[in-house]
Amino acid sequence: MNYLENILRGTSADSVSIFIAIIIMSAFIVALILGKMNLGRDFVQYAPTLLTTLGIFGTFFGIVLGLLDFNQANIEESIPPLLAGLKTAFITSLIGIFASLVLKVLSTIPVFQAKKSERMANKATPEDILSAMESQVDEVKALKDALIGNEESTLFGQLKILRGDINDNSKNSRKVIQEQADIEYARFQEQASAEAVRFDEFSDKLWLKMQDFTDAISKSATEQIIDALKQVISDFNHNLTEQFGDNFKQLNEAVLLLVRWQEDYKAQLEEMKKQYELGVEAITSTESSITVISEHSKAIPESMSELKEIMIVCRHQISDLESHLNAFSNMRDKAVEAVPEIQNHIETVVKDISKSVDIANEHYTNMLSETDKGIKNVVQDITKSIDTVNEHYMDILSKTDEGIQSVSDILVGSAEIVNKKIDLASTEFMNNTARTNESLQNSSDYLQEQAGIMKQNLENSVRELNSTMRSMIETLVKDTSEMNSTMTTANQNLVLETSNIRDVISKSVDKLQQRLSDVIDDVATQQINQAKRTFDAMEDQVRNQVGLTGEAVDSQLKLIDESMQQEINRVITEMGRALTQVTGKFVEDYVKLTQAMNEIVNERAA
């Protein structure tokens, strides 16, 4: 690249301009001489383009020479060589374009054109002309056979075959689309059945989890309480059986009562389980009601189709009325046009008949006007009825849409509310459980503390049995009363907390049942809407594909017909031009032949 730049820097702009100008003028002179001598026609025809190309080559060469010495850091010193290069560029392009224009102009002047030799025309005979015309006729027949022959290889036969292929392709495409639609429908049914199976499995798993949850709650509560009481009772029995037999008997009775209460609580839990089963049955009944609603909703498209048929009948009636109106208007126009002519003819015959014709004309015009009014009234009534039907139909659709939207909004709101309530219930349940555990832990701690105090008191009483027996008995009575009150309060608190837990659990079960019913409703509506949207989309897609295929086939047939018509017109035009040229050439040759024969006859006569 540097070597090439050094070579270009060694050349000057003026020398390049002179060299390219010499090449352009040489090509111009050679093309002019060859055109005059009728030699090198390809070079002569390409000469204008060659001259223009040489000028453009000089343009870019001059621009390159100007830009080689251009320095951005020193623009003032770089401008003169740049202008010199641009000067070379413009001069060479101007010379090339000017030479091309001059050559084109000179090629149209007869002086610089090649002389036509007339030796071939003088040697032509009538037999040659006849054979040439016969060969042209044969070629025209061959062209006709190639265009509209009976064989399949002709253009017309190929067009027929192409049309048949297009029809076959359209049928195959429709079959493929139908098969794809069937496959998609079967796939959708499989997905729907799979979703139903998944939903059943989910409901079964949910039922098992809820049953396990209730069993775990009941077992954990009862087992913890029983274990705590057993531990306390064993401690008391181990330490204080001999001295406090009566008190422990009372405590045993209280424990028995507590065990009975636990059995009652278990029975209540079983009743809650039965209520939960009833809730599940209610959910199944709601599911059956949803299926009934979906079955009833299927009647809506049928009523829509019947309404569509009514609209079609109304449209047919309107079209019939319009045709009758057109017929009546034509009859009226013809009658109006015929009346003046009849009147002119009858006025020349008799005046009395003209009066009767005027009366008949007035009667006909009144009758036609009344008929037009009646027909217009009928059309207005029909249009009003159609408008009312459309308005009623649109109101039904709008109300249906509003109802569906309101139901969906209500379902969404209820779902949110149920979620919030379930969250609150779960938090309350956890808080109540925590409080219950705390109260039980406090009671057990309190019992342990009291047991420690009593143990210490017993040890003190054994050591000081002789001196402080009465005080020990009083202390024992006080402690026993305090223990009884403590157990009573603990029992009451336990009963209250248990009732609260039962209420919370019942509320949670009711809320869960409501949430499950709402979820089932939402899932059912979503499945129905999804199925409807899927079928609508599939139907629209099939219709669009069939319409596009029909439009493509029609457009292809139109393009084929247009191209065939254009090709036939072009062939006929070319045949006419060829026949015109042949006829003109035949006339010229015939005139020359007659002149030559006259000259020969005159020479022989002379």
Counting helices, strands and paired strands, the structural category is mainly alpha
The count of strands amounts to 0
General shape = elongated
Largest sheet: none
Instruction: Give start-end ranges of low-pLDDT stretches.
Output: 117-122
How far the N terminus sits from the C terminus, by CA atoms, comes to: 84 Å
Total helical elements: 11
Please give the oligomerization state of what you see: single chain
- Helix % is over 70%
Q: Beta fraction of the residues?
A: under 5%
Rg, Cα atoms, Å: 57 Å
The number of distinct structural domains comes to 2
**Order of helix and strand elements from N to C terminus:** HHHHHHHHHHH
Mean pLDDT: 66
Question: What features would you describe in this structure?
Answer:
- The structure is a single chain.
- By secondary structure, this protein is an all-alpha fold.
- The protein folds into two domains: 2-115; 188-587.
- It is 93% helix and 0% strand.
- The chain is built from eleven helices and no strands.
- The chain has helices at residues 2-10, 13-36, 41-68, 75-107, 119-123, 126-148, 155-240, 245-297, 299-349, 351-463, 469-605.
- Keywords: Membrane, Transmembrane, Transmembrane helix.
- It comes from Photobacterium phosphoreum.
- This is MotA/TolQ/ExbB proton channel domain-containing protein.
Q: Could you provide a short overview of the structure?
A:
93% of the residues lie in helices and 0% in strands.
